[in-house]
Specification:
Number of domains of chain B: 1
Strand order of the largest sheet of chain A: 5-4-23-22-21-6-7
CATH topology of chain B: Alpha-Beta Plaits
CATH class of chain B: Alpha Beta
Structural class of chain B: alpha+beta
Number of strands of chain A: 39
Number of helices of chain B: 7
Largest sheet of chain B: 3 strands, mixed
Strand order of the largest sheet of chain B: 8-1-9
CATH class of the domain at 238-283 and 294-526 and 804-836 in chain A: Alpha Beta
Shape of chain B: globular
Distance between the termini of chain B: 31 Å
Strand content of chain A: 15-25%
Radius of gyration of chain B: 17 Å
Order of helices and strands of chain B: HEHEEHEEHEEHHEHE
Helix content of chain A: 25-40%
Largest sheet of chain A: 7 strands, mixed
Oligomer: heterodimer
Radius of gyration of chain A: 29 Å
CATH architecture of chain B: 2-Layer Sandwich
Helix content of chain B: 10-25%
Number of helices of chain A: 33
CATH superfamily of the domain at 238-283 and 294-526 and 804-836 in chain A: Dimethylsulfoxide Reductase, domain 2
Largest interface: A-B, 92 and 81 residues
Shape of chain A: globular
């Protein structure tokens, strides 16, 4: 009998407590204790029975879907338990490396065998039922029914909305507005925006789309509409607020090849953490990066140091916490570098290998240009550029001409690929074939000159730390060979002048030679297979537009190419960012506000809440209110937030439980896989007449058709078989994309049992569009939530990362020859300490001296961006946030935990109010304030939406008898730093950004504390 | 009587063989009496709250009350300071203070070591809540007993154990800081940890003999918030 019970449990057949107890009571119990005692023993009522605890994956009649989370951007896997069509529980996906500290179960394991395996996922993901079923979600299309910002909205029929947005016209005449609103059709023309400035492109660029939570392939779906079908350059992401600062350093370091590079948590022995919240945020997220580091810490296999104004949660296990002054990561890194240079603790072997072959020979997948010569000669036409063989010999063959030049051991110039070992630290005069001398310096020398501009004491003072701390950390960092690396993230450089803070942080890894070596500073390994090509071509279509003109943010476009420059020279009206990584939502918003370099006509904000999410975003209230600056505003979102209360239309969207199909490749470091997100439940939004859910995809398909744009509708997708296929619903695109991945990755066909498992997935409803064999391969992928056929070890060739970087630089030629569009001066191509400075040269530390405290924000482990107040369980854990004040500052100012205070800045005299928490975990002179709180919408207040019972998912649960929305004040607690952040008075009082990369500033705001 | 109750309900759950607790599940013969316990390594806990949310998601405890939570401690003196996390839950004590405290005889210890509350008997008197030195019990006012609500607490996710699954908090623990197993027949990493001589329990002076043990945070002066 005992055996029978065990077998039952092992076979995974669901037994409820009651049935189990009955069974045991009747049989096993009788055997052990006699019937009477056994009956007595089982008569108790468990609270779980009453509270209706969530179903588990082994319960009868539940569906399991393996998919990918979107609680944040980290891309972990999920195992969703769906009971009677309702999502009840998330845990991790046992096949996904991110849920298993890089060591998932073998990819070929049958799904059935994995269901009992524990597989963790973080709290954000586990809160998904509260997010997906949030009663304040909107499920029907809305049209403005009052002034912008009045939050008066009313229902509009889907088809009517599509027609209005496609055609434009006097759309709000019924409100007494005589304005003619532009429609998408009006922009489907090739007229120039400004015939006197043709470089700005055509009127197509008047449509501006900014995307918030947007991953592959949804991102490409919106690209297809905005860029390919309509022909606007303006599909902009939000890399800037996500964290472009540290990315700019990597961008310079890798010559734009890669911006996501991190210490390998699985094999590193020492990690130096700059502005990276490795235990609370990051990508890979807390259930991967943090868990891996923490477990290895417990085994004493890794040590790490945190450089951060705040003792993050990782301080719990850290070797050192260096409470650095905000905005001074660069100073600290430069101090470390100076110490490393002076004590010759750098990896000379790696630095002196001048080409890929020489570097490979000594065990490196990538090489560095430390020994390459740079022309340092004002009069030379190629000054600031690398010396090339053509500079020495104009008659050099085409192939030889472009070769870089190094000094060989005997100090003779030689092509970089002809020697194995070159001179590292030198300045020289070399002669060209005509006998003319050219002054040159090695890249290493130029970097060193930059570093030597300040002493270690000065760097320590700038960083607000002790000199001995720099020395200690430098010594530790250089004591682990190539098993030491940096993990830098948002905090390292997300402020003005941040490029020159994160560049030295990146270079630290080059000095120890750990770039793309096991345990070193590594990029990700990429996807398992392409999703947009193969069986079906999801990139190209007939009638696809060619883009022209600059993005309204002026990213990746040189000011010198504009008519404005030819007329006015320097300075430009606002900065241009030719060297930026891009994704500048802040400067896009400011460009819209200033109608510069051209005006916006239609603004589509997708899951994007600029007023809440951008430091100083409150400035854009004025922008979004203005019908001149934003003639038509369409928001695609799941709720009414602080920004889309100014919209003209709100298109309801699905959450990632119901859509957001995606192909999620790894973040740095190391791995190679493609996670596949498909819905876990049916859409909760309303439906079109032909049964498609209201969502971003349905919107774009229908608008494209109504406005006569190509790439959508019948015959939009070309198959490898030469046939044409339709794009009339989201799955027409995404299911074919999964077929591309499955066939590209050459996965086997799924067993019958696994096909049956997958056929319970919502996506399986559309399987008929695929051939039987395609579906069998697709089922293999979907059953496992993606393609995870490579182990950690598989991405290495010995110590070398197979998919790593090929080249990194101490001197970046492109950056060195790019000019600041305000000052007209060249940017430094190598390291240089730069005080955080606004584009017009203001040093906030000096101008805002009367505001004694820095204010910084950070992410919490249970929250992500702007909508996670809907994570009800997390909100029970942390019902609000606090103004975190260092205990010494608290003593001096007489503040106590619980005191109510107002924080005011020069830009925001009304500021924000919050409650004090006295702490030892934030630097003296700095106030910490977590993000995520301080909402004024998303259900925190009532909004005068008509037909609220139909509009909101919660229906009558959140609508009173008079039809008014009943708010939930729990969503409105706390404060947000963004509402008090510093603006730039030199540029129309818009949010402050950096002049090189367009980096928004999260670290320079200074505030006063006013006790209330 | 109350003392006796600890042992009387020797039922049948003792026989539930919890399989698949580790990543390499192996068939284990159901033998002897099980005694469940947990070891929490504070050198692994990142304070991520995943366990806390997992418990909420699984057990649907009443709003703002928790079967498990994470205590935080600010250790050391600034700037030589750090945060220290200590996950806490019901200790499923060998000598639980809550059991004899209950006048309604609603709370008792299962032979597998798990302390549970019988909601058929619980009247919301609250004596057990007061008696527990670990604040592991609370009243759920959504349901009514004669004297108020009903008392809730951690039950190691008994319903999951019956299915061969780990407690929700253990499954959700990303760094494997929470190690769960049968103290009488330990297996895998749990067994290795059980051999350690540096394990601590909360408030040993209360003589409750807890079955949740801790490895203290070695970087912290205080080691944790026991």
């Amino acid at each position: 009998m005992k055996k029978e019970i065990t077998n039952l449990i092992e076979s995974g057949i669901s037994i409820t407590r009651r049935s189990f107890l009955k069974f045991t009571a009747a049989a096993a119990g009788a055997l052990a204790f006699g019937v009477d005692k056994a009956k007595a023993a089982v008569k108790w009522l468990s609270p779980r029975k009453v509270q209706k605890s969530a179903a588990t994956q082994l319960d009868k009649d539940v569906k399991i879907v393996h998919s990918v989370c979107l609680g944040c951007n980290a891309r972990c896997g999920v195992r969703a338990v769906v009971e009677s069509g309702k999502l009840v529980k998330h845990s991790g996906n046992p096949y996904h490396p991110y849920n298993n500290r890089f060591e998932p179960i073998a990819y070929k394991t049958p799904v059935k065998e994995t269901l009992t395996l524990p597989s963790p996922v973080c709290g954000k993901s586990q809160d998904m039922p509260n997010y997906a079923y949030n009663p304040y979600r909107i499920i029907k299309p809305l049209k403005r029914a009052g002034e912008r910002g009045s939050a008066k909205f009313e229902l509009i029929e889907w088809e009517q909305m599509i027609s209005e947005i496609a055609n434009g016209g006097k759309l709000f005449a019924h409100l007494g507005e005589d304005t003619v609103y532009p429609g998408v059709k009006d922009l489907n023309k090739d007229d120039l925006i400004d015939p006197s400035a043709p470089e700005l492109g055509t009127v197509r660029n008047g449509l501006v789309f900014i995307g918030g939570r947007d991953q592959n392939a949804r991102k490409e779906f919106s690209d297809r509409f905005v860029k390919d079908a309509l022909g606007s350059v303006n599909r902009v992401g939000h890399t800037d607020i996500c964290g472009i600062g540290f990315r700019m350093g990597n961008h310079a370091f890798t010559e734009k090849q890669e911006v996501e590079i991190k210490a390998d948590p699985f094999s590193a022995e020492y990690i130096l953490v700059f502005g990276s919240n490795i235990y609370e945020a990051l990508q890979p997220g807390v259930n991967c990066y943090a868990a891996t580091v923490a477990k290895r810490h417990s085994e004493d296999k890794v040590k790490f140091t945190i450089v951060d104004p705040r003792a993050t949660h990782a301080s719990t296990h850290a070797e050192n916490w260096i409470p650095i002054k905000p905005g001074q990561d660069g100073a600290f890194a430069m101090g470390l570098i100076r110490w490393i240079l002076e004590n010759e603790r750098y990896n000379k072997e790696f630095l002196t290998a001048p080409n890929p072959k020489a570097s490979d020979k000594i065990g490196h997948a990538c090489y560095i240009n430390a020994t390459h010569l740079v022309i340092a000669d004002d009069k030379h036409k190629n000054n600031r550029k690398f010396l090339r063989m053509s500079d020495l010999n104009p008659a050099a063959s085409k192939e030889e001409a472009i070769a870089f030049v190094v000094l060989s051991k005997d100090n003779m110039p030689a092509a970089f690929d002809k020697v194995e070992d070159a001179v590292l630290d030198a300045e020289a005069m070399v002669k060209d074939s005509s006998g003319k001398e050219i002054k040159v310096k090695t890249a290493f020398r130029l970097m060193k000159e930059g570093v030597m501009e300040h002493s270690i004491e000065e760097y320590a003072k700038l960083a607000g730390v002790e000199k001995s701390q720099i020395e200690k950390v430098a010594k530790e960092f250089t004591s682990y060979g190539t098993r030491a690396a940096v993990t830098q993230y948002h905090g390292a450089g997300n402020y003005i002048s941040g490029t020159y803070a994160s560049y030295p942080v990146a270079i630290l890894n080059a000095l120890v030679g750990s770039v793309d070596r096991k345990g070193g500073y590594m990029k990700g390994g990429g996807g398992a297979a392409a999703w947009n090509s193969g069986l079906y071509d999801l990139k190209d279509f007939s009638g696809k537009k060619k883009l022209q003109g600059p993005i309204i943010s002026r990213e990746k476009f040189a000011y010198e190419k504009t008519t404005e420059f030819k007329k006015n020279g320097y300075p430009s009206k606002r900065p241009w960012f030719p060297f930026s990584k891009g994704g500048l939502c802040v400067e896009t918003m400011s460009g819209i506000d200033q109608q510069y370099p051209y005006p916006c006509k239609i603004f589509i904000s997708y899951f994007f809440n600029p007023i809440y999410s951008i430091p100083g975003g409150y400035r854009y209230v004025e922008t979004l209110k203005s019908r001149e600056k934003v003639p038509l505003h369409v928001s695609i979102d799941i709720g009414i937030n602080e920004s889309n209360i100014y919209a003209d239309y709100i298109v309801p969207d699905v959450t990632y439980a119901e859509g957001h199909y995606g192909f999620l490749t790894p973040h740095a470091p190391a791995l190679k896989f493609t996670g596949v997100r498909t819905p876990t439940i049916e859409p909760l939004t309303g439906k079109t007449a032909d049964g498609r859910p209201f969502s971003e995809e349905t919107f774009f398909i229908d608008i494209a058709k109504a406005a006569g744009l190509p790439g959508f509708g019948d015959n939009a997708i070309k198959g490898k078989d030469g046939k044409m296929y339709p794009l009339n619903k989201a799955e027409d695109f995404y299911l074919r994309a999964i077929a591309n991945v499955a066939s590209g990755a050459k996965v086997p066909e799924a067993s019958q049992e696994e096909i049956e498992f997958v056929e319970k997935y919502p996506a399986a409803r559309h399987k008929d569009m695929l051939s039987e064999s395609e579906w069998k391969q697709v089922s293999y992928v979907l059953a496992r939530g993606g393609v995870f056929d490579k182990r950690y070890e598989d991405v290495f060739d010995g110590e070398k990362h197979k998919f790593g970087l090929k080249r990194v630089v101490l001197y970046n030629e492109e950056l060195a020859t790019t000019k600041n569009s305000i000052s007209g001066e060249y940017f430094s191509g190598t390291l240089k300490y730069i005080t955080p400075t606004t584009p017009k040269g203001r040093v906030i530390d000096e101008t805002d001296r009367d505001y004694p405290f820095y204010l910084i924000s950070y992410k919490m482990n249970v929250h992500a961006q702007s909508r996670t107040v809907w994570h009800n369980w997390s909100m029970e854990v942390f019902p609000t946030n606090f103004v975190e004040v260092n205990e010494k500052d608290a003593k001096e100012t007489g503040l106590k935990t619980g005191d109510k205070v107002r924080l005011v800045s020069k830009s925001s005299p009304n500021g924000i109010t919050g409650k004090v928490k006295v702490t030892k975990l934030v630097r003296q002179g700095v106030l910490g304030l977590s993000h995520h709180y301080g909402h004024t919408q998303l259900g925190a207040v009532s909004v005068p939406v008509k037909n609220a019972k139909t509009v909101f998912l919660g229906g009558k649960k959140v609508v009173d008898k008079k039809g008014r929305l009943i708010p939930n004040p729990r969503y409105g607690t706390g404060a947000s730093m963004n509402y008090v952040a510093r603006l730039d008075e030199d540029f129309a009082n818009t949010p402050m950004v950096d002049v090189v990369g367009g980096i928004p500033d999260f670290s320079s705001t200074r505030v006063k504390i006013v006790k209330l | 009587m109350n003392e006796r109750r600890l042992f009387l309900k020797n039922g049948l759950l003792a026989m539930v063989g919890v399989t698949a607790l580790s990543k390499t599940p192996k068939a284990e013969a159901v033998a002897g009496i099980k005694k469940y316990g947990m070891i929490i390594d504070l050198n692994r806990c990142t304070g991520c709250q995943s366990c806390v949310v997992a418990c909420k998601a699984q057990n649907k405890t009443v709003q703002d009350k928790f079967n498990t939570k994470i205590l935080t401690l600010e250790d050391g003196n600034y700037p030589d300071s750090r945060i220290v996390f200590t996950p806490v839950l019901c200790n499923h004590c060998d000598n639980p203070a809550c059991v004899p405290a209950c006048p309604a005889e609603a709370t008792f210890k299962l032979p597998n070591g798990i302390v549970v509350t019988d909601w058929d008997k619980c009247q919301g008197i609250g004596e057990c809540v007061k008696a527990c030195p670990y604040e592991a019990r609370f009243i759920d006012q959504r349901y009514k007993g004669e004297m108020g609500g009903k008392v809730d607490k951690c039950d190691f996710c008994l319903n999951r154990l019956e299915q061969g699954l780990l407690p929700a908090c253990v499954e959700a623990c990303e760094a494997n800081a929470r190690l769960f197993g049968d103290i009488n027949a330990p297996d895998g990493e749990f067994s290795e940890y059980l051999k350690r001589t540096d394990l601590k329990v909360r408030k040993p002076e209360k003589k409750t003999n807890p079955n949740i043990r801790y490895v203290l945070n070695r970087r912290s002066r205080k080691g944790g918030s026991l």
